[in-house]
Design brief:
The protein is built from nine helices and twelve strands. The chain has a domain of about 210 residues: NAD(P)-binding Rossmann-like Domain (Rossmann fold), CATH 3.40.50. The protein binds NADP nicotinamide-adenine-dinucleotide phosphate (NAP).
Amino acid sequence: MKILVTGANGQLARSLADADLPENWQIHALARPQIDLVIPETISKSFDQVEPHLVINTAAYTDVNKAETEEELAHKINAVGAGNLAQVCERHNVPLIHISTDYVFDGGKKNPYKEDDPVAPTSAYGRTKLAGEQRVADACDQHFILRTAWIYSPFGKNFVKTMLGLAATRDDINVVDDQFGNPTYALDLANCIVAMGKQIFQNRREDIPWGIYHAAGTGDANWYDVACEIFIQSKQLGGPTAQIHPISSREYPGPAQRPANSRLDCNKFDKYFGLRLPAWQASIAKCVGQICNDNTRTTDKL
Ligand SMILES: NC(=O)c1ccc[n+]([C@@H]2O[C@H](COP(=O)([O-])OP(=O)(O)OC[C@H]3O[C@@H](n4cnc5c(N)ncnc54)[C@H](OP(=O)(O)O)[C@@H]3O)[C@@H](O)[C@H]2O)c1
């Protein structure tokens, strides 16, 4: 069983490489320039080389703030590029798991968002990811669009690494406490994606409908809560700590407008796949532990 993963250097793709794979399953993670979503020939060539049974699209333009001034480029990758990949999947009759985002919602709902709630992105990034969902659904019948949120991992750029990095150089950090979401450990999501693959290919669950699913860490939080948990764990491990101060989004304005509530209701994912991601606090502990451990073993800077 061969799985082609796009965006090999990203947080989720690197976590997929570390996920618990069944015997005889292989991940073929490819990065640019070998597979570039905006160059269709590279997609076809990669299919010819790998001959995948399943494709996981983790590749995306993910810089939410920068997308406000680079929406055209973000659209090219997140919408046109995702559509290009979906077309090749359809041509080869290969199922596609496409990763999308909680930022397709405007944040106005009081409760967690369900898959069929109205979408209304407030940011350029969210608009381009929504357009990607639509192109994937139009181009490829056998698709799962997995909306996730607030990804962190020991790899790349993310909130956990930013907090630990800041704490290494300052004593006080202001963190917003009025945006609520589901912190998601990339390795937890990667293991769930592999488990989805098992349901489809090993258990041959043809009753599971294609379409959109929400899959994110269990339990919700605001960024201040997450920062507090990071430093509780880091302190226990002898890592960097700082004093955290809650502030409002108005006190920390950025180029992109982010939803105040982007919590995802993941019951549909549980209903059809029997899968739920672990509680976010437990996974923050694992991730902080991994980062602190990596730091003592290598000269890698936070
Ligand atoms: N991070 C989050 O908090 C979050 C939240 C919700 C949803 N998501 C979604 O989850 C998925 C995975 O996120 P992540 O955090 O793992 O992303 P990431 O770490 O930013 O990695 C994205 C990867 O996509 C690659 N890429 C960019 N443009 C490409 C192109 N034209 N062709 C091929 N590859 C390209 C980048 O490659 P280079 O190394 O060459 O730049 C990068 O390695 C994305 O779809 C993202 O939209 C993320």
